[in-house]
Design a protein that fits this description.
Catalytic activity: (1S,2R)-1-C-(indol-3-yl)glycerol 3-phosphate + L-serine = D-glyceraldehyde 3-phosphate + L-tryptophan + H2O
EC number: 4.2.1.20
Order of helices and strands: HEHEHHEHHEHEHEHEHEHH
Radius of gyration: 17 Å
GO molecular function, one term: tryptophan synthase activity
Distance between the termini: 26 Å
Function: The alpha subunit is responsible for the aldol cleavage of indoleglycerol phosphate to indole and glyceraldehyde 3-phosphate.
Structural class: alpha/beta
Number of helices: 12
CATH superfamily: Aldolase class I
Pfam families: Trp_syntA
């Protein structure tokens, strides 16, 4: 079953879906296993697994440090793909890979897609690959039935949104504000107008991320977005309190 269909089925039973984010190999793969277990057991609907990259340009300081520490620990792309396969075989939710294009380029696009398909990965988020430069990427995504997930931003024009909608699959990731991940977002009139533009511009479910940190944020998105994305906040929690704190935090978001 493809990603959009899975999310639409899950959305029938919930006011809003929840997607979480982990950096693979940070603080360790063993910790990742425990974090994913707690996330799934407490109702997460989709998990975005970041393959670490040395210059993650869309990410703020919390995720940047996690990427750099993971690489310093020796994390490899092969380990990340193997971990993704293990999680997809263990839990009945969709798992995605998020990374930057240089990772695919150096690994080999064809090889990466083949291995991701074998791992049962449902989608890919590559924030630094403009659609106009990704002809081979989109061809391989279609052939391997892995959703290329594209990103709307507050600066996106209607024309740009239409282009992204025509090329993306699975869902549209709506960045809540300008800048990088981690800083808390505010939901004022400008945001409401932007979110309405996002909804009108796509046929797919919409997910909202960047600065979503607590239950209040998620409540504010109900009825307007299909999925909320929690990223930096869970990494902060693991840094401060350990992996065992993730389950109660996720449970408290509903």
């Amino acid at each position: 079953m493809q990603l959009e269909q899975i999310l639409r089925q899950r959305k029938e039973k919930k006011d809003i879906l929840l997607m979480t984010h982990i950096v693979l190999g940070y603080p360790s793969f063993e910790a990742n296993r425990e974090i994913v277990r707690q996330m799934v057991e407490n109702g997460v609907d989709c998990i975005e697994m970041q393959i670490p990259f040395s210059e993650p340009m869309a990410d703020g300081p919390v995720i940047l440090k996690a990427n750099q520490d993971s690489l310093a620990n020796g994390t490899t792309v092969a380990q990340c793909i193997a971990f993704g396969a293990e999680m997809a075989a263990t839990y009945d939710i969709p798992f995605l890979f998020m990374t930057y294009y240089n990772i695919l380029f150096k690994h080999g696009e064809d090889r990466f897609f083949t291995e991701a398909k074998e791992a049962n990965i449902k989608g890919l988020i590559i924030p630094d690959l403009p659609p106009e430069m990704g002809e081979n990427f989109f061809r391989l995504a279609k052939e391997n039935e892995i959703a290329p997930i594209l990103i709307f931003a507050p600066t996106s024009t209607q024309e740009r949104m239409a282009t992204l909608d025509s090329m993306g699959q699975g869902f549209i990731y709506c960045v809540a504000r300008r800048g990088v991940t981690g800083k808390k977002s505010s939901f004022g009139d400008d945001f409401n107008e932007y979110l309405a533009r996002c909804r009108n511009a796509t046929r797919m479910p919409i997910a909202v991320g960047f600065g979503i940190q607590d239950k209040e944020d998620i409540e504010a998105l109900k009825g307007r977005a299909d999925m909320a994305v929690i990223g930096s906040q869970t990494i902060r929690l693991v840094d401060e309190q350990g992996p065992e704190a993730v389950g109660p935090f996720i449970q408290g978001l509903r």
